[in-house]
Each structure stands twice: as structure tokens, then as C-alpha cells.
Predict the 3D structure of the following.
Amino acid sequence: MSYEPNMYDSHMHTPLCKHARGKPPAYAKEAEKKGLKGITFTCHSPMPYGWNPKVRMSINQFDEYVDMVHAARDEYAGRVDVRLGMESDYMPGMEGWLEDLHNRANFSYILGSVHPQTDEYKQIYLTGHDRLAYEKSYFINLANAAESSLFDCLSHPDIVKIVHASQYKVSDHMDTIKQSLDRIAKTGIAMEFNTSGILKSYKEYNPGMEILEEMAKRDIPVVLGSDSHDAHRVGADFEKALSKLKTAGYDTVSFFIDRERQELAIEDVFLTALQPRLV
């Protein structure tokens, strides 16, 4: 019996973010090699007020981004479903900017991110060198992002652990995390399971199993993303990640098409690069 690929990688970047390599066709080629049905580009959004401009496209490059993704879509039509998305930074007070940005193109997926590792975030929240208060602010802002209704999914939802990797303990924040997840669950938003965490200073997926299990308890939909900044990372560690999702209590995995959530039973996920079907 033959199977058609049915899985998407929902998080990857382009050189416009200034810290990724390879143009969209290279990512689509790797997706085809890995047996993915589709990929969604989610390059870092332009932001106002000069917000960490060294790691994102400028607003003047927005049309270039849309055009390069659409060109890859057309080149790989019938082979890989290439989708236009955006990874948009959330900060309180920037909601109007983001709402306008998200209406500038026909996005298939909007990924919301809080990036506490930026200098700008630290200037606001890492005051008095109070590490624990700073880390707590991150989890509170994740819930704020969910309640903004601007996003389909929240990305790498414990990335704050990379900032003080040798000191961070999830146990320090479980009460805050549970309260934030309660708020997030009420919104219906999805959360990401991001496989790039093993490359960072705190070497585990984002989020770690403790948070992933709490997400599962609350029936928060989960989306799988490689967060590829290089084409070879497309679909990286998806088999392991799907196994971890099962261990955490998930039976399904999601992705978004035209801002609508699609759901697959994990036991039915099929990547043509895997033989036999992933179970």
C-alpha cells in the first residue's frame, strides 16, 4: 500500500532575517527530500520603533519577502505545498502595528513569538538583575499574546530558558506557567513544539516535557516546527518529536492552512522518507 505525505513543517526562515542561510527553493527541495507535504515560511516580522532590527526584515523588504515565497510556491507547485506565513513578535503596545502588518498579505499562518533574549526586552523586564521576575514576565507575556487574538500559534514557548541556561529551572515557574497555560487554553490558540532547541544553550526541545505535558492536559493544540535557519534543518527530528508528543499525552498534531487549523492523528502521520508509515 502506498501513502501520500501529509505532514507540514510550520516554522522556517529566509535570509531577510539576517541570520538564516538559503533561499526558499532550497528549503522546498529539502522538504521534498524529507517527504513533507508542505512547508510554511515564517520569517521574522518587521517591527516598529527600531525594535532589534539586526535580526529581522525591514518593512521596506516586506514585499520582497512575499514575492520570494510565492516564487518558490510556483516553482514547487504539485511537489511541495509552499505557504506564506510570518513569525511576528508580540510586545504589549504593538498590537496595532501587528494587526496592520497581518493584513498586508494573504497569510496562511501567523506564528506569535515573545523573544526575551533581545536587548530591547531585557531593558524593559530584566530590571534590578531580578532573573526570576524577568523569566516570569516571559510566561505572562505568552498568555498576553494569546489573548491578543493576533496569532494562530505561539512559538518555542519556553525559549526564555536559553538566556540564563545554567540557572534556569522550570520548577521555579510552574505556578506561573500553569496559570498562563490556563489563560492560553481559553483562547483556543495552538502552541508550538519546536525541534531547534537542541541546538541552543539549553539543549532540549521547546517546550520541555514538563510544559508539554501541561499543554496536553489542557487540550492545547500543538504544531510542529523545525525553526529552520538553514535548509538542511527542514523537518529535523520530526520522528523524535512526534514520539515525545505521544509520551506527553498528545494523540494529534496540527498545522494551519489559510489560517484554519488542520489536525492529524499522530499514528497517521506519514513522511514518504520513512518506511514504513510512522506509527
